[in-house]
Amino acid sequence: MEHFFYVLGGLILLVAGGEFLVKASVSLSLKLRLSRIVIGMTVVSFATSLPELLVSLTAGLKGHPDIALSNVVGSNIANIALVLGLTALLMPIYVKKFTYRYNWPAMILISALLIVFLYTGRTLTSLEGFLLFLFLVVFVVFIIRKSYKTGDVLEDDFDEVLLNTHPAKVMIWLAIGGLALWGGSELLVNGSVGIARMLRVSERIIGVSLIALGTSVPELAASLISAYRKEKDLSLGNLLGSNIFNIGSVLGITAMIKPVSGFEDKLLDTDVIWMFIISFIIVPLALIRPKHIINWWKAALFVVLYLVFIYLSFFG
User: Fold this and answer.
1) Which CATH number characterizes residue 192's domain?
2) Start-to-end Cα distance in the chain
3) For 198-221, what is each residue's pLDDT tens digit?
């Protein structure tokens, strides 16, 4: 039973630590007078990917490659099928031209690149991890430059209070956030391995379901709250950007530190295929009437797909 408390405690620490780090990172960036485009595309995106990074890195170093990989794959599936699906059930989400011209193709390309790397040698090597990370860097630079040229700005409305936060307080936030993420990742990985052994299921199943859902909680909570408040600045581009960061930074950095190998065959034969298909159908669905809108029936389709994926993960 203690394994469940480990998982619960780990998730709480990850959510809290991620929140502290996002606030601290944004505050520091504002003090350095970085533009909000740069803050949104780099600082915030990377900070919100830190829970996945710490979990995958901890799992990889502890010799649990299934968790290291399935955490990212499952999180990417959850971000679109569950987070986008549930959010759009509350309020339609508009797909902007900028999103399907740039964010979506980049997500498809880096997903395809990951699949190619995994299938060639069934290992994610340090070099391949570096290439994924390099893709992310090029993408971020391109998007920032494109945003400036087109006049598009990110929709994150950062609280001005963060600009005036005392540096000592920011340092405390960074320390608390870092410690919380480290402790949370340790608890979550250890607890998840214990649950997998207790339930006699593979670590891959726990990774694509429980851990992936847990590390996607911040995105889910933020999106649902925004939809409930009828806020108009919900952005599909942010979710797609999060998926790009998950592959480029989380798996990229993890593989650079320690190659990811020895994972279960079903991760390649099933899970990454699900990830690619769910990622791919976003724009074709958005082009079906009503065009450029993820409305209730399209959202319901995503949620159903997520439930089918979870069911097949356990019983397929």
Assistant:
1) 1.20.1420.30
2) 26
3) 888 899 999 999 888 887 877 777
